[in-house]
What does this fold into?
Amino acid sequence: MRQLRALAQFLWDFVVGDDWVTAAGVVAAIGLTALVASGAIAWLIMPLAVALLLTSSVRRAAEAQAGRTRRASSRPDPARIDR
It folds into this structure.
């Protein structure tokens, strides 16, 4: 049972990782592709989904990094404080 739990934890960390939104988007894209599999545009869904999800993920990471940088630069530097 412990090994099964460890495997499940590994798979969750591997698939979802730090960004559950992207993982959910991939699952939705696969589901949508399966729904329209008989259509002529089914091949187009995954490349579009990858482009949108990658852009979204990079944008969120850049905004988070900018927020961390902004917070860090707003703190006074103890070495530069005049006494």
Notes: The CA atoms of residues 19 and 57 lie 8 Å apart. The radius of gyration is 21 Å. The chain has a mean pLDDT of 85.
